[in-house]
């Protein structure tokens, strides 16, 4: 029995694994490729130059791979890539990239994307993230692995959010967020380290203590960012058990382009 519902419209040029399921009234465009085990629910539109991996689940009424919401876009064949084992809930909108940036919007593996999430053009999202309902991500944003975006959080264009950060409900982000930091508010303010998340992911006591020390150097010491980077480099040597995590925070400061939330 076919796994494509009789009312679905799948362009004959689309590349779908034989195990892909497509629900009633969904539309799959000609430049779409979908991997094994992926389930496309009813009333989903997948278009554009979109590549989707294996074992994903798309719930009803999402728009995936539509043209970027950018007035500079002039019909270029930019792309959207989605990895494996992602859950995309109702009414999500993911756009393709633009030639002014990387030309691709990407979502990694094992992400949980709740209803009404917008992922704009050229965004780069890692793996194992959680986006709660109505998280809104503007263009050119980079989000690391294991980040949690709470409901109604929104992110300004070109911001970066480091791995394992936690963004609280209704937070408005206009600056970059270092790894491991917990923040909330409008405007956003840092409120410590995402300790509970780190414990759940198996970080050791020594690693968490090292991250907390690094946080204090950035946020509580009164140092400039350049001074904080130097202090973090010294702390890497002094805390070998947490050196990788401290280095991640130091290197993030070197890539921040909008300043960091402080």
UniProtKB/TrEMBL annotation:
- First-tier enzyme category under EC: transferase
Record's GO cellular component, any one?
A: cytoplasm
Is Lipid biosynthesis among the key words of this record? yes
Pathway(s): Glycolipid biosynthesis; lipid IV(A) biosynthesis; lipid IV(A) from (3R)-3-hydroxytetradecanoyl-[acyl-carrier-protein] and UDP-N-acetyl-alpha-D-glucosamine: step 1/6
Q: Does the keyword Repressor apply?
A: no
GO MF entry, a single one: acyl-[acyl-carrier-protein]-UDP-N-acetylglucosamine O-acyltransferase activity
Task: Give the UDP N-acetylglucosamine O-acyltransferase C-terminal domain ranges.
Answer: 176-261
Q: A biological process (GO) annotation for this entry? A: lipid A biosynthetic process
Q: Which UniProt keywords apply?
A: Acyltransferase, Cytoplasm, Lipid A biosynthesis, Lipid biosynthesis, Lipid metabolism, Repeat, Transferase
Report the locations given in the UniProt record: Cytoplasm
Top-rank taxon, per record: Bacteria
Q: Name one Pfam family in it.
A: Hexapep
Reactions listed under catalytic activity: a (3R)-hydroxyacyl-[ACP] + UDP-N-acetyl-alpha-D-glucosamine = a UDP-3-O-[(3R)-3-hydroxyacyl]-N-acetyl-alpha-D-glucosamine + holo-[ACP]
What Enzyme Commission number(s) appear in the record? Answer: 2.3.1.129
Q: What job does this protein perform? A: Involved in the biosynthesis of lipid A, a phosphorylated glycolipid that anchors the lipopolysaccharide to the outer membrane of the cell.
UniProt similarity note: Belongs to the transferase hexapeptide repeat family. LpxA subfamily.
- NCBIfam families the UniProt entry points to: lipid_A_lpxA, PRK05289.1
Subunit text: Homotrimer.
Protein name in the entry:
Acyl-[acyl-carrier-protein]--UDP-N-acetylglucosamine O-acyltransferase
Look up and give the organism this protein is from: Rugamonas fusca
Question: What taxonomic ancestry is recorded?
Answer: Bacteria, Pseudomonadati, Pseudomonadota, Betaproteobacteria, Burkholderiales
Q: What is the gene name?
A: lpxA
């Amino acid at each position: 029995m076919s796994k494509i519902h009789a009312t679905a419209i799948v362009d004959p040029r689309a590349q779908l694994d034989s195990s892909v399921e497509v629900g009633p009234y969904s539309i799959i465009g000609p430049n779409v490729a979908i991997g094994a085990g992926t389930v496309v629910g009813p009333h989903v539109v997948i278009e554009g130059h979109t590549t989707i991996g294996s074992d994903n689940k798309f719930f009803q009424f999402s728009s995936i791979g539509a043209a970027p919401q950018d007035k500079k876009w002039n019909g270029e064949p930019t792309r959207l890539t989605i990895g494996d084992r992602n859950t995309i809930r109702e009414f999500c909108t993911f756009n393709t990239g633009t030639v002014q940036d990387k030309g691709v919007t990407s979502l990694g593996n094992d992400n949980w994307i709740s209803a009404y999430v917008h992922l704009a053009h050229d965004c780069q999202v890692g793996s194992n993230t959680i986006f709660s309902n109505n998280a809104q991500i503007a263009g050119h944003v980079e989000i690391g692995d294991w980040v949690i975006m709470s409901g109604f959080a929104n992110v300004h264009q070109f911001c970066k959010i480091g791995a394992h950060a936690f963004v609280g409900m209704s937070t408005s982000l206009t600056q970059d967020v270092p790894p491991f930091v917990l923040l909330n508010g409008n405007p956003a303010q840092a409120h410590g380290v995402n300790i509970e998340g780190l414990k759940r992911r198996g970080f050791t006591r020594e690693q968490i203590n090292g991250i907390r020390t690094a946080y204090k150097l950035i946020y509580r010491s009164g140092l400039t960012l350049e001074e904080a980077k130097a202090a973090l480099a010294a702390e890497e040597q002094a805390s070998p058990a947490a050196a990788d995590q401290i280095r991640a925070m130091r290197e993030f400061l070197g890539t921040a382009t909008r300043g960091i939330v402080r």
